[in-house]
Sequence to fold (410 residues):
Amino acid sequence: MSNENMNNELQNKAILAETVLNNSISNSTADKQIIQTEILKTQNSNQDIKEITILSPVTNGFNVIASTNQQNLGLTFTSREYIKAWSTENPITTLTNDTTKNPAERSWSVLAPVKNEITGQKTFLVDFKISLTSIDAATQKNQKTSLIALVIITFLVLLLLVNFFRFFQYAILYKKLDEVDKMKDDFISIASHEMKTPMAAIKGYISMMMEGLVGNFDEKTKEHLIKINSNVERLDLLLSETLDVSRLEQGRMQFDMQPYNISQIIAQSITAVQDQADSKKLRLTEQKLDQMPQIFIDPDRLRQVVDNLVNNAIKYTQKGSVTISYKMINGNLQTIIKDTGIGMNSQDKKNLFNKFYRIKNEKTVDIPGTGLGLWIAREIIRKMNGDILVNSTENVGSEFIIQLPYIKEK
Ligand code: ADP
Fold:
């Protein structure tokens, strides 16, 4: 309820109370004592009633015949308000503010003549004061509550603003980071690309030297040449893999997709690593399906992935075999590259596809590698709508599964 509404409500109540009082007085006799009792009863019935005074007109004003305020008893008032109220039919209401009190006390004052019920003649004047203290306190409480609510809302709005500002700053920071990240990617891409040309020249000269095309070298120098060559090969691989990472990350790797039979790729890959397998006395075999389905892939990219996985299988297997087999499952062709090598524990298996992750233990310490091959392999297969899965047991062996959807015959 608004302050104004409350005031109106109270004003109406004051008039109503005055009317009730009016009736009880007009019905009573003119006995001052009865009237005094009557008004005290009325005041006690409501704590908001501040004062009731009953006056009767005399020649020089209005004489107090009963009052809840003892100090008024016996006094005569000549107030213009009383004269005006006496001459009107309807009650006069006025709002008074007693500033002598702290806090100031506001009250509604109702002045109305009381008529004798039988004769209809005006007999008394009722001065009825109803205090606004309780309602003002309620209003103040309301104001206090509103103020607290306002402070809380302001605080919340401020908090939101601060957050919004912080998010805004994060957005700017994110954009900058994104730009810096892109600059880094561009730098890596350009730098590795530029290094490819001098690397090709170095490789050319080393190969000429090793083939004896530029003179003969003693055994010691030949040994050094072999070491230089193997390090240059590693550097070249690192460069190629770095370029692939940046192409994949920037979505610049091209895919020439076509229907293909994966066993053709496996055959090429086996031929390429056969010598390596023989030198380690590993059995390298392929177990084809009776009917090999076609898959929709980029043959060169898939060859890159198969080479990597077959190479790893041989690299990380000291004895036993590397077997390549196939399975058709849920619309996918699985190419399973299984070895009887060093395997890995479950923790290593989790991190296997992270960039630059290499399992470090006494069995892998002498095996060279970049730790980028598997990340690249899985990204490439995912770009061709497939995935790479791993099963591995430490000291038993590993299974790397290339899973790709096969083309269904109509
Ligand atoms: P790397 O160039 O080091 O071989 P990869 O990304 O191809 O990099 O492989 C990451 C790591 O995963 C390897 O360093 C090796 O520790 C482990 N790994 C990969 N293939 C095998 C495997 N067939 N058997 C055991 N460990 C493997």
